[in-house]
Specification:
The chain is mainly alpha-helical. Helix content is 42%, strand content 2%. The protein starts with a helix and ends in a 27-residue tail after the last helix.
């Protein structure tokens, strides 16, 4: 008789659980999918820059001299004097050619295959305490300064979308195309094979 009592208790517990689940499900508000967003809302989020050709680079321009001033105001505390490494981050200069050795030095000049990547990353993530707070002109100026410190552009360059995309980065050919079969997958939402 004891096993019958346990079975009844288990069944009773399961029934109570089903009943409480049904009550919770009925008490939830109806599903809402939100409101449509404006083109301006989408534009504020659509800030990606394509590396090889700089597609998506915004209007604006900056100089090495302006970039040095902005760097000393906004960046030196974390990245150190002349981007040689600071209290928070390592160097952003040097290391060019190190990717062909076993002692790689990761800097924009040594690692990035395309200069627009520097603009894209800086605009999205810097300064660390206020990402996306820099103007496009400030980001162009900072890009000019960092690229100049790496010996990739002259001191008198005016950096903009056109000049940034023309820079031949030292590690441009240091990457291989990922040709695994799964990288060729295509999106399918209806009548998929």
């Amino acid at each position: 008789m004891r096993s019958l009592d346990i079975s009844c208790a288990l069944l009773g517990g399961a029934g109570a659980l089903l009943l409480s689940t049904a009550v919770v499900a009925q008490s939830k508000p109806p599903v809402h999918y939100g409101a449509s967003i404006s083109e301006a809302d989408v534009a504020a989020l659509d800030i990606d820059i394509r590396g090889p050709d700089g597609k998506g680079l915004p209007p604006g321009k900056g100089t090495v001299a302006d970039g040095e001033k902005i760097y000393n105001e906004q960046c030196v505390a974390c990245h150190g004097e002349k981007a040689k490494g600071g209290s928070v981050f390592g160097a952003m200069v040097g290391g060019i050619g190190s990717f062909t050795t076993d002692k790689r030095v990761l800097t924009p000049g040594s690692m990035y295959p395309y200069a627009p990547i520097l603009f894209d990353y800086t605009r999205r993530a810097m300064p660390m305490n206020a990402p996306q707070s820099l103007t496009n002109d400030q980001v162009y100026a900072l890009s000019a300064y960092i690229l100049h410190l790496n010996g990739l552009v002259p001191a008198d360059v005016v950096m903009d979308a056109a000049t940034l995309t023309k820079i031949e980065m030292p590690n441009r050919n240091g990457f291989i195309v990922d040709d695994r079969p799964d990288t060729k997958a295509t999106r399918c939402q209806k009548n998929c094979p």
